Amino acid sequence: MIRSEILRDIAPIIRDHLVVCNIGLPSQELHAIDDQPTNFYMLGTMGLASSIGLGLALVQPKTVISIDGDGSVLTNLGTLPTIANNVADNFILLIIDNGSYGSTGDQPTYAGKKTSLAAVAQACGCDNVVEVQDKDLGPALQTAIDSRQMTVIVCKCDSGNIKLPVITMDPVVIRDRFMKAVAR
Amino acid sequence: MSISKKLVDDLVANDVSFITTVPCKQLAGVIDEVEARSEIFHIPANKEDEGMGLCAGAYMGGKRSAIIMQNTAIGVTINTLATLIQFYRMPLPMLISYRGELREPVACQVEMALHTKALLAQMHIPTYHFHGESDAAEFDAILKYTFMCNKPVAILTDASFWGGYGDQ
Lengths: 184, 168
Hints:
The structure holds two protein chains of two kinds. By secondary structure, chain A is of the alpha/beta class.
């Protein structure tokens, strides 16, 4: 499965939770598949989906799912020790690991070569790290949500993209709509 | 009252309850004070752009946040300031140690000091420079201004403000 198929698969599971979605195609895909006020779309700033999600999870009780990619976690690898040492049991970091920088033309990442992000997360001190294959993500994600334990999920999948328009919603509108959904 | 305590008192009085820090020798006292306060969730970051992501998340969760960092971080965070904090219009007080100014013992620090105010001006970031201890009297008003206008605001604090570098 490619990322857009995975997002379609898990859309019913994440719909009722706060979602911070990574820059580029992941946000465009989620926006096209199931736009929700509870989705925060990153329009820039590669690498910070996990940091934004952790900050959000630490200050309020609702479940927060950061949908990140292997390339952007590699961009901000310092996020994993911060996550491990500041446990928010309402936080799930979902790394969709297709071994490539999808939004920029599928250049290979080191996570698709020798580097295991699950092993890195464990070495950083993250207590609940799960590596799953694309088709098994739905149940694993639901289990993580229900467990109320901070979980890092690394979902291995194929690289590949679908053609979608960019998100034209104004960033302040995205942010304001999201903050109202958080406060609701 | 120590200057660190005064600054943190002002942060608390302005409902700032989530603070991320990347250390600098000059900021050690204020970071200790942040860590000691029960009203503040202190989360050290490994890099300043990561810290700004944490602050953005906390802000969207309904908490006022702030970052404490060195001026070298302006070089690290230009993209994050432009595409996250400014693009989504979020308030972010940035309490910054202004290394490379008078009394600086480390030559390399001067290199980023030369660019600090120019970069902040280029980014249209309101910038205040604390040089003498009495300058800290404005901190409360600067925080109120930050949360009024929903912008990142820089407070540069130089070595003279902190009383020099001791015996280095």
